[in-house]
User: What shape does this take?
Amino acid sequence: MGIRSTTIVAVRRSGQVALAGDGQVTLGEKTVIKHGATKVRTLSDGRILAGFAGSAADAITLFEMFERKLKDHSNQLVRAAVEMGQEWRSDRYLRKLEALLLVADRETTLVISGSGDIIEPDEGILAIGSGGSYAMAAGLALLKHSNLSAREIALEALRITSEICVFTNNRISIVELP
Assistant: This one.
């Protein structure tokens, strides 16, 4: 699924987890209509981080659904993600939603998609959205070749991405698990 119009990156380092997203909202191919949207948030009383790429209305629906799955499964991230992936893929209405979720807790980082994919990274970095590959590359380089914190890597990866990807800006929101 080629989701455009945002970049979300999760970084895990030294027991810290940071999730950052840019603030740009693009209408169609050419028009930026908002610069400071917030696409990352905490769930489960701050124990889970979540961000989205894609349609805002679809993402809100998915956030609400994911929060219900977390409650149903005692805030177990992997179990809730698997249940959500199964329901998202099998439900005719949900399959039409155009968004990806990136979620993280203290142990695990996952991307959840409407095709039923639940992806966990090999490294401590995962990114989605139009600038996802740029943010992931920048984040991996910083993770391997610096002593920056998870927060600092997430911020710098998005700053770099905003200089390359026209669908990503440098108005960055960040949430963390200390």
Q: What stands out?
A: The chain has one domain: 7-169. Residues 7-169 form a domain with the Glutamine Phosphoribosylpyrophosphate, subunit 1, domain 1 fold (CATH 3.60.20.10). The CA atoms of residues 52 and 101 lie 5 Å apart. The first strand starts at residue 7 and ends at 13.
